[in-house]
Amino acid sequence: MTRPARGVVLAVLAPLLAGAVLGVILQAADPRIRLYLAASPSLVAIAAGLLGTAAVAIVVLARRRAMSAAAVAAAAASAAAIRQVAEEAARDRLRFFMRLDHELKNPLTAIRAGLANIEQGGGMALASAGTVAALASVSVQADRIARLVSDLRKLADLETQQIEMAPVDVTGLLDEVAEAVAEIPAARERIIRVTVPRAPWPLPPVEGDRDLLFIAVQNLVANAVKFSAPGDTVEVRASEDSDELLLEVADTGAGIPADEIGQVWQELARGRAARSLPGTGIGLALVRVIVVRHGGQVAIRSRDGQGTVVGIRLPVPDRARIAPDVATLRQGRDTPGMAAV
Amino acid sequence: MGGPDVRPVVILADDDEAITSNLAPFLDRAGFTVHVAADGNAALELVERLDPDGCVLDVLMPGPDGREVLRRLRRGGRWLPVVLLTQVGESAERAIALDEGADDYLNKPFDPYELLARLRAVLRRARPGRRPLSASPTLRAGDLRMDRISRRAWLRDAELVLTPKAMLLLDYLLTHPDELMTRERLLEVLWGFDFPVGTRAVDNRIAELRRALGDDPARPEWIATVPGQGYRFVARVDDAR
Asked: Is A34 exposed, middle or buried, given 0-12, 13-18 or 19+ CB atoms closer than 10 A?
């Protein structure tokens, strides 16, 4: 094999290997995590690796001028096969969540009813302080499992349920998020800034479900508050970027260690810093699912000890966009200083 | 229901013994006479034999499932209040539960006190011998009319233009009049699950309904705000015909 050819093979296979390795790592991870995730994320990782392989393969192949039509067809066919594998893995994960949800529901209902029985039967009045404390603890833990189950269910639901599409005014949405976040007690000790462009024109509306988009942005801002300290700054920024709308939530908080950032979008992923804080580790996975269902993308950048910025890109429908020639005309008409009025 | 010292008779149908053995004594202490059925046929047989005041049906049961039991009861002209214990939170599932004439439903795993509250509410609302609002295809409240099958509503002669979620909310309010609806409960009605935040989503839909109905929150004709708690549909609701 010639040197360049070996390089090509390596480039093509690297993502697959990386995916497989990530899959194996996930599989061998903490048994508590494995209990909930089972084999599915490893499948997803392998599938992602396969997809990466396909992407690289297509790029490499496309660069080779002498590529035959047959090779193009083969690449397309294998890409389709790989996509099918990825979709099947996603469906597997969904089915697993639903089964888990289903299997845990009855025992949880019974536990809650049992606790209510003890409480209602007056048993608590006679019980020792230790028994009362133990029962209270069981009750809290049952609620915690119920919350976890319902959170996973939520994710599975959001991946499949039909999304009500309507124009959403992002400026109003962000104002509302800021109001909602201000109700979190810790928010009073943060400097929260919302920056929304109003000139030369306001943000275009996006298409989507307002409630879901609210939940996505609210989750990010609440996270920023949660993982920062009094005196830290949280910025919510919106901007228009050709055919996309970019929403960013940035904080000067604790940041995410480099070895944890790859997992933040996964279900139940909780960083070391989050262990002492309440939560089920579903927030960012929820954000990801909501944004992807709206045809958008998510990205996260962080420096340990300096802070984090999460970006959401959402497509702006054609009809909501202002054509560039109109923009040029408007700029020409405006006299300096007028735009600020 | 009779006087205050008459214990309402309720059928509790669920095939999971862990649930019935815990829920039955709970409901019993709360003032109900509970009869347990382990499957759909037993539930139908108990209803036939005891003519109970109400029924709690699990959706997943051997034999005729909860939904089928409900259909058979309604087909046979039995209008007793029924609370369905549903398994999934999908909106289709919820819409079906109400379409089939369940008076209310709860998603497992539920808080037993919530079941108690729902059960008491449906029994209070029960109209003995008459079809419950939740099993009526058309409803009327003053000048407001709703066709629940086609999910369309009219105020006087003008059709209301509502988002699907607002229509679902209106349907739930109309079939549960004069009942305090917490934001959390309405959120569950709209979404099938509770979000840790975002009860504003409910406020927004209520605002949409009020706009469509021309309702003044300060002097509500339809939807009253219960400060710090939620909402209440205050107009009198009846079958349209």
From this structure: middle
